[in-house]
Write a structure and sequence with these properties.
CATH superfamily: Spore Coat Polysaccharide Biosynthesis Protein SpsA, Chain A
CATH topology: Spore Coat Polysaccharide Biosynthesis Protein SpsA, Chain A
Structural class: alpha/beta
CATH architecture: Alpha-Beta Complex
Distance between the termini: 43 Å
Radius of gyration: 16 Å
Strand order of the largest sheet: 3-2-1-4-6-5-7
Order of helices and strands: EHEHEHEHEHHEHHEHH
Number of helices: 10
Length: 232
């Protein structure tokens, strides 16, 4: 079955993303994706002013809740429209809109519940990832596995596709407010025995996108929060 882009709702968490959020939204629209939800996670810059003029669905947190909080809000908002597929997409310009089709089609045509775009499957793409990020990602993959998730190549990827039913299930169970949400998604996939796969994607590395995302301190915080969740 060919991809009908109207079946897809794209969730973008955004915190102080005034530099690139308009470009990210326009890139998606240029590829025919018009069902766009941006969650402004308590930004103190002009992010909300920009997105509110873009003819998209805007959600706003009055305070910064973190990546997990923003994704939770975005998933819950998207579910209101009963889409076939919900795709999470980073705001910082690192994802290629053409890869949305790669993660969405297995949900639509092959019956997968969740599809994760991996930056670490294609050997040529791996070479483009800075060494420090490769080491950090593999460390977080191991932590995710030890905390009860699957061992996958890119647990921290921001490009994912969920079926409507899997998104509804995960949104109800999600506890994470911050970066540990990426690992919690993997844990919940295993806990709920959801059918999943990884597909290779491209990543656009810039000085701006490199400054965002996880670092060693963030990785340590993720470990602590996942341990706390497991003890609850």
């Amino acid at each position: 079955m060919a991809l009908d882009k109207n079946d897809i709702y794209i969730v973008i968490p955004a915190y102080n993303e005034e530099k690139l959020i308009k470009q990210t939204i326009n890139n998606l629209k240029n590829y025919g994706y018009n069902n766009i939800i941006v969650v402004d996670d308590g930004s103190y810059d002009n992010t909300y002013d920009i997105i509110s003029n873009e003819n998209i669905i805007c959600c706003k947190h009055l305070i910064n809740r973190g990546l997990g909080g923003a994704l939770g809000t975005g998933l819950s908002c998207a579910l209101l429209y009963t889409p076939k597929v919900i795709v999470t997409f980073d705001a910082d310009g690192q994802h290629d809109p053409r890869d949305i089709e790669k993660v969405a089609l297995p949900v639509i045509n092959e019956g997968y519940d969740v599809v994760i775009g991996s930056r670490l499957i294609d050997k040529e793409e791996v070479k483009n990832m800075p060494l420090i990020k490769r080491i950090g990602n593999w460390g977080l993959n191991l932590i995710t596995y030890l905390m009860g998730g699957h061992f996958i190549t890119d647990s921290q990827s921001g490009l994912r596709a969920f079926s409507y039913d899997s998104a509804k299930l995960i949104a109800k169970q999600l506890k994470s407010n911050r970066y540990e949400v990426s690992s919690e998604f993997i844990v919940l996939i295993k806990k709920n025995k959801l059918k999943y796969k990884e597909v290779p994607i491209k990543t656009i590395y810039t000085e701006y996108s490199m400054a965002r995302g996880t670092n060693v301190l963030t990785g340590f915080k993720i470990l602590i929060k996942l341990l706390f969740q497991r003890l609850q």
